[in-house]
Amino acid sequence: MDHAPSNPDHMANAALGQGVGYGIVLGLGGAFALGMILVTYILRRYNREVQTSEMFNTAGRTVKSGLVASAVVSSWTWAATLLQSTGVCYRYGVSGPFWYASGATVQILLFATLAIELKRRAPNAHTYLEIIKARYGTFAHIVFLVFGLATNILVSLMLIVGGSATVNALTGMHTIAAIYLLPVGVVAYTLVGGLKATILTDWAHTFILLIILIVFALTAYASHDVLGSPSAVYDLLVQAAARHPVEGNKNGSYLTMQSREGAIFFVINIVGNFGTVFLDNGYYNKAIAASPVHALPGYLLGGLSWFAIPWLTATTMGLTALAMENTPWFPTYPNRMADADVSAGLVLPYAAVALLGKGGAIGTLLIVFMAVTSATSSQLIAVSTICTYDLYRTYFNPAASGRRLIYMSHAVVVGYGVFIATFSVGLWYAGISMGYLYLLMGVIISAAVLPATLALIWAGQNKWAASLSPILGLACALVAWLVTAKKECGRLDVACTGSNNPMLAGNVAALLSPVVLVAIFTLIFGIDKYDWKSMMDIRRGDDNELADGAGLDLEEVHGVRSETHANQEEELKNLQRASKISKTATIIMTLAFLILWPMPMYGTGYIFSKPFFTGWVTVGIIWISCSFIGVGLFPVFESRKTLAKTVKSIYLDITGKSHPKTIQAQVLEEQQTPGDATPTEKSIAKQVVEPE
Predict the structure, then answer these.
(1) Which residues contact 391 (CB under 8 A, 6 or more apart)?
(2) Is the torsion defined by CA of 146, 459, 104, 209 positive or negative?
(3) Any stretches that span the bilayer, and where are they (predicted)?
(4) What is d(CA 594, CA 649) in angstroms, rounded to the nearest whole number?
(5) Which of 110, 459, 514, 607 can bridge 530 by disulfide, Cβ–Cβ 3.0-4.6 Å?
């Protein structure tokens, strides 16, 4: 087996050379960019899609459930999903992966309800901030604009900081070079294809990532010469607990759900992730891009599929690190990993090198690259739509044409890429790690979660409750965080403010203080009686200039079938039915993930037996295999007709038997389902394929 040589000094002799690092970061990034240029050309030539401002920012609002699910999985699979979850497994044992996965899955499931409400209340919105502006006016809009951009910035920083640390550890590539080069390919393909490019590359990234994770799991639990079975891993974990028992765990074991520090992380994780889902415009982008009938199944399938990724990845790689760190194949042998390395997210790459040598290093580099780039593209589009529609069109140029909106979107994508890389360099010099940012995000942003949610689901929230609760909630959170840190440590440095108890205090204060504040402002200023009409008045981008330039009918360019009153009534009924289903389904699944499954094991302090641990791992492998089917294979099956038609058109075109006129009309009957609708030429209601 090709094991890497042991090296305690951060892989000074890295498992891979710098050339491999530059090759993957630049080469793979460039390949995806060129691939999306080709896909965009194919969509334009054979599917008659045109890059209007609406298509760039909303993907025509016609994406099907399979691609929505894969986009959700990809957007939620940050570097932290793989690196941080593995780190908490290394620290707390089997409880860490479950607390991470369940504490971040429920937000996606609950967001499904919000996605349906968004489609019902504001069908033409581009961002959730437009909804805030339509309902509450300018002051509230600016408040949520700050919180929304802060969310995107924090998430982007975590992605780049965590990803660059891993690239550096595995290849020796300089961290600053990795920080600046990781976003290059992402910016390129996002510029070319907009949200549609992001969603398509999300699927490709998710497909590759799941295959590599399944290989890691099967290697550790089925074929490795040191591990090779759940039974062998179990025995090594028992030995590891004897050498260094976990403080706060039942009997110091790594094989129990009863973990004091793990439970604290669980609360911090839940709170922080509410902010990064409910305030991240990227998730609203996915909801907006989905055709109305596909939003609910897309988010439910995405949430359930995502759960297996951090759960099984961390259960495999975190436990592999614990089991193998006492062997010569582990990079830090004979020492344990330093806490700073764990916080930097290096448990996963170290475990992969111990497990598969250079093959493990390449696999880790690929999955981290996929996670960082796909989630970063989502952040680029999220910030682009906010700056284009909520800043530029709202306050600077309300009459902006579609061409001008696309220009602004492109400028923001490039500018934000440079800004976030430069900011990441500053954090690197300051010694701020991905783990620190992950714990901090809830303190900074979660005070806006409840007011933002109520804006879509409760007609009674008045504008002062919506506007002031996030500001005062943030103040409460910062006070709770810093006062607790000062009281515990007597100082306010990175180590103390980043410890669990201060972060717990700040996160809980951020999420729960608005419960009191909204109630107080409702009592003072009264219950609002909002009629939801102003949200319906949000308008789409004016793409007449682009449409006329290409000889297109604007209604068809939007990718939506002609909206009659009957269509709107039918769609509203479907969304109302989906709203009821989503509320019931998400409540049941949330209770299952947070209470029914973990709490009996936590309360009883059950320490896993060998058969139980074997079953635990087996369920994880089955679950991630189902995830691969759900978000890897199902999107291909769902789009099989479009794919077959496109491949046939390409074949006929290449062989010279016939070729489609570029930007021509498409049969209107082919747009009967919203998921199939794409921008088409006006004037002729017939697809023309000319014989040579």
Answers:
(1) 145
(2) negative
(3) 20-43, 63-83, 98-118, 139-161, 173-192, 204-222, 263-284, 296-324, 344-372, 405-430, 436-457, 464-484, 504-527, 585-607, 613-637
(4) 49
(5) 459
Instruction: Look up residue 204 and give its two tokens.
Output: 């490709």
Structure tokens at 420: 């976030």
**CA proximity to 46, closest of 34, 54, 35, 38:** 38
All residues at 6 or more sequence positions from 187 whose CB lies less than 8 Å from its CB, including other chains: 380, 413, 414, 417
Q: Pick the residue with more confidence: 676 or 400?
A: 400
DSSP code for 659: E
Neighbours of 141 (CB within 10 A): 20
Which residues contact residue 577 at a Cβ distance below 8 angstroms, ignoring those fewer than 6 apart? Answer: none
- Per the listing, tokens 């079953």 go with 615
pTM for the structure as a whole: 0.80
Residue 61 gets which letter from DSSP?
G
Q: Does the pLDDT value for residue 90 go beyond 80?
A: yes
CA angle centred on 201, ends 198 and 205, rounded to 5°: 130
Higher pLDDT pick, 225 / 667: 225
First to last CA, the chain: 57
Residues 106, 113: Cα–Cα separation, whole Å: 12
CB 326: neighbour CB atoms within 10 A? 15
DSSP state of 689: E
**Closest residue by Cα to residue 3 from 311, 335, 227:** 227
How many C-beta neighbours within 10 Å does residue 252 have? 14
Instruction: Tell me how far apart the alpha carbons of residues 284 and 59 are, in angstroms, rounded to a whole number.
Output: 13
3-state secondary structure of 658: strand
Spatial contact of 15 and 170, defined as CB atoms under 8 Å apart: yes
For 349-413, what is the HEC assignment?
A: HHHHHHHHCHHHHHHHHHHHHHHHHHHHHHHHHHHHHHHHHHHHHHHHCCCCEHHHHHHHHHHHH
Place of tokens 């909002």: 530
